[in-house]
Predict the structure.
Amino acid sequence: MAVVVSACLLGEPCRWDGGTNRNEAVIRFCQGQEVIPVCPECAGGLPTPRLPSELREGVVVNREGDSVDAAFREGAARCLALIGEKPVTLAILKARSPSCGKGQIYDGSFTRTLVPGNGVCAELLQQAGIPVLTEEEYLALLKETENIENKIGGSNMNQNIVKRNTLLAQKVIKGLQSRNMSGYYAADREEALRIALSLIPEGSTATMGGSVSAQEIGLVDALKA
């Protein structure tokens, strides 16, 4: 499985001012996973550094009022193409960005006024069925995990990881359900195999479509048996 992450959160100096939004918690989450870094602005051909931009009435403009909408949308499309057919389970994107923001973005007045909405790339990924969290939403999930641990006195690292993964899975599944898609969480390969087999009616024909997950959980061998 793969996770899409805003490149600035991984420490890439691709912010509008040439800086970075490096986030250690997100980087730790990415360890051991296939990571697809994205920066829609750079992918759309905009330079770094560049003038800050915001969405104004559905159009991305820079601080001087010039439209950079085409570059933002081209970059978002290229990021989606980069993902291709990879089995992406989640995207963690930069909050409030005109490309990557989810739920809240700046209103285009360059006064740091927030309004409901999504960035161009976040919206495109969600339309493609990819669950999106901002780094702030992910950190909130971590905080929720810590609160649960404090209440029950949990200190085992493996237990902490399971709790974190369960909370994250619930968030992802909820996002899938909002798009009329189903999702299931399995704590290990054995459980994943049981769930997968339960979803395949007896006597039916199954095709894999190159699924790496089907191979990893032993589904292919189980169906051949």
About this structure: DSSP finds nine helices and eight strands in the chain. Residues 177 and 183 are 7 Å apart (CA to CA). The chain has a mean pLDDT of 88. Strands lie at 2-6, 34-38, 53-56, 59-62, 88-93, 104-106, 114-116, 132-134.
